[in-house]
Amino acid sequence: MRIVMRCVAATMLVALAACSPGAGGEPSAAASSSMSDEDLLALGRQIVQCMRDNGIPDVPEPFVEEHRLQLPAGEQEALEEKYTDEQFDAARTACQGLYDQVPQGAMGDGETDGGEPDPPGPEDVDALRKFAQCLRDNGVAEWPDPNSEGAFPLAGTPLEKENPENSPRLKAAFDVCREHWSGAIMIGK
Hints:
By secondary structure, the protein is mainly alpha-helical.
């Protein structure tokens, strides 16, 4: 049961994004483009209200950090102690519409249940283009724009082998440009 509850806690932020009074289950235009931190926080507040209205009344107020919707530290554990899997599932089911509006990679710590960062997708292309332009403006002139799936066509180029942890110019540019994208980077052809 404890393992199941841990999974519930790990998906709590995902469930938070699943609530939308009146969203109708349709993704918004915001989901297909980059979303500002202010818009993400407003969406997060709607999500929290939806969770509260659908059986999880003491969900704390969210905040945005590094372009991700977050809950205060320790709050997920408190919620997992208090509520059952069925209660979380019911709230998620009732609120699925907002989940569809949250851009991929904008939930929680950017990790999937397996601990790996969420890969970018087509809905992240606008933010990734801004990230790419920022990299070019900050010393990595050859960095390309992402493809339509959110991957950077670096395969077969010298950039593919240049690791940001070992390259001072990439590390510096990545640090400056995290305001545009701080999630996983996918490399494609």
